[in-house]
Design brief:
By secondary structure, the protein is α/β, with parallel strands linked by helices. It is built from ten helices and ten strands. The protein is globular and about 55 Å long. The relative contact order is 0.18.
Length: about 260
């Protein structure tokens, strides 16, 4: 479904701040893959996600969606086929709009707008049903401003908005990193439920080794702009944190494992 061939990206080329963020990346995602991407700071995880989303342009290489070359395609064009949840819960929603208004915006993403009535009764009933699946009591607060909600509630709504119309690819950019551990677990549980129910192809960046092992059917490890480990199936199911630590140690004598990666 998604294929990256020889993709490289360097920031601040030719300056003292030059940074090779990605180096000759070759990667394919099959339909229905739920890939978790682990790595230390500066490994290239978020850069890779942003290249797929079209936020950055590649320096070299090609990106294909469904065998269509989208390498030169702008971010807003690709956005019609993508769902995305950011690290910051404030980025995925409009704080001054009601919950149902945020959901209505998400439902209309990529569609032609008309002068018809804003939110119809049938549509509102659908929002109520979807909010109820979050088990956060938000189905009774659809007129509440999103800015009044907690970070976890906003992130759950952002996740619902990103998947309300089934995207070809769901991008999760450390979407639980800003949440407390209990709330993060809840959002990850919701993520699993939605991804499995709708069979979404998913690309989840995380710093947390335990989360990378626990979720998804495939795990990719990155270091210094390269993919150094790609595991799936039974091998991934049997992975332990100690196994990932050994992998990091073999490619980085200084060690790139930190508390953020180890702690659940």
């Amino acid at each position: 479904m998604i294929k990256l061939t020889g993709v490289s990206k360097t920031f601040n080329t030719g300056t003292i701040n030059e940074k090779k963020a990605l180096i000759d990346i070759h990667l394919q995602l099959a339909e229905g893959d739920f890939v978790t991407v682990i790595g230390g700071n500066g490994a290239g995880k978020s850069t890779l996600l942003n290249l797929i989303a079209g936020v950055f342009e590649v320096d070299s290489g090609r990106i294909l969606f469904d065998n269509i070359d989208v390498t030169e395609q702008k971010e807003h064009v690709r956005a019609k086929h993508l769902g995305r949840v950011f690290q910051d819960p404030m980025l995925g929603t409009a704080a001054n709009m009601e919950i149902e208004e945020n959901l209505a915006l998400a439902l209309r993403r990529g569609k032609r707008r008309t002068l018809g009535w804003g939110i119809r009764h049938q549509e509102r009933s659908m929002y109520r049903e979807k909010l109820a699946t979050l088990d956060l009591g938000l189905e009774t607060r659809m007129k509440s401003k999103v800015g009044l909600l907690s970070g976890g509630q906003r992130q759950a709504i952002t996740l619902l908005m990103a998947t309300i119309t089934k995207p070809r690819l769901l991008l999760l950019d450390e979407h639980t990193a800003a949440l407390d551990p209990k709330t993060a677990r809840k959002v990850l549980e919701l993520t699993d439920e939605i991804v499995n129910r709708d069979r979404l192809t998913t690309f989840m960046v995380t710093h947390n080794m335990k989360d990378a092992i626990r979720h998804g059917n495939r795990l990719i490890m990155m270091n210094a702009g390269r993919i150094i480990y790609d595991v799936s199936g039974e091998e991934k199911k049997n992975l332990q944190v100690a196994d990932l630590m050994k992998k990091f140690e073999t490619v980085n004598d200084e060690g790139v494992v930190n508390d953020r990666m180890l702690l659940g």
